[in-house]
Amino acid sequence: MSITQAIGKEVKSYHWFVQLMLLLVLVGAAAAVYRFVFGLGATTNLNDRYPWGLWVSFDVVTAVPLAAGSFTLGAIVYCFNIKKLEPLIRPAIVTGFLGYSLVCVGLLVDLGQPHKGWHVLFFWNLHSPMFEVAMCVFAYTTVLFLEFLEPVGEKFGWNLSLKVLRKLHMPLVIAAAGISTLHQSSLGTFFLIAVEKLHSLWYNPLLPLQFWMSAISCGLCIIILEATATHKWMNQPNEGVLLRTIGKILPWTIGAYLVVRVFSLFFLTTGPLFDNPVMTRLFTVEMGGFVLALLMFSTTAVRNNDRLRAIAASVLVLTVILHRFNVSMFGMMDMNNIYYPSMTETLVTVGILAAHILFFVLIAKYFRIFVHSDGHEEPAQSCPSASAYSHG
């Protein structure tokens, strides 16, 4: 195959991918408009028994830990002084900013009266964990936006703004770590009110701590998957050396989570544990996933192999997703009255996911977010097919 043919194939693949993501975003946006016009009752399967469905379980409770890589990596680099991981921070910030921005979209879609969403900023309920999470998500999204402004300033030559942003860099990192710790744990606090609704396999007083600890491991795994994907599909240099360092950290974070999980299960849980076969199977798969990820990341051969390391990260991410669904949905489900998301709920969620991927690809194309461990700085148009398009 000639160079011209290869470039043409890359351009075609890039355009096809962008068009597909854009189509999914438009379909999701149309479903959201349909929800706003006709209301929650007519467009969703939510009811008094299940007031929180897919939009809360995935778009909020699950999406927040998936976007936790920015605060986790920032704490590791600047608080624990592991500066060699610094090249991974900018892509993690972009992922976090997009993730939290789209969490806000999911929250607005799920609100019964979204036009009153701004009330949380002025009418404070200091006794509500939902208020704390709302304020922290708003504050952390703002912090991530300010951190994201640095590559934007570089793109447009805002020298004065860049100087201000770089002076604020360390305070922003500290603020991000503190705010994230608060709201990652407060997501677990939500479900402490479901004393007789959430199954005993997941209900315990350490649920907020478990949410925070699992988010740390999940955020690190998302960084591994993100770096692996950008190397494979966006022609970025292989950051295997840095990812191996993250792989060495993960057995400690996963192991600490499992210790807390097992301790709370057998010493702090008061209700029956294995009385429901469906819940027992879900719990077994969940715990098996954490143990498998721990064993894989504890193996040098897995940490040093790009493919196996990505598989191990995928196992952990899928396990955290299952854990969040077990807590926020499956663990509270009535087997005689099972909730299924409607087509509208599904299309909105797919649209939000597609928007995250699409915006990341476009930002990676037009802004310099990749600064690699060898000191090489990628130009703004770093996607190979995008580069080919610009020269075609």
Please provide a written account of the structure.
The protein is an all-alpha fold. It has a single domain (17-231, 238-383), classed as Formate dehydrogenase/DMSO reductase fold. The chain contains 16 helices and no strands. It has helices at 3-38, 40-43, 54-57, 63-66, 69-79, 89-110, 129-156, 159-167, 169-190, 207-233, 240-267, 277-297, 300-303, 306-328, 343-366, 384-391. α1 crosses α15, α1 (3-38) packs across α16 (384-391) and α10 runs antiparallel to α14. The protein is globular and about 55 Å long.
Helix content: over 70%
Got a strand count? 0
> How would a crystallographer describe the biggest sheet?
none
> What is the annotated CATH architecture?
Up-down Bundle
Quick rundown:
This protein has 392 residues and is mainly α. The protein has helices spanning 3-38, 40-43, 54-57, 63-66, 69-79, 89-110, 129-156, 159-167, 169-190, 207-233, 240-267, 277-297, 300-303, 306-328, 343-366, 384-391. The chain has one domain (17-231, 238-383): Formate dehydrogenase/DMSO reductase domain (Formate dehydrogenase/DMSO reductase fold, Up-down Bundle).
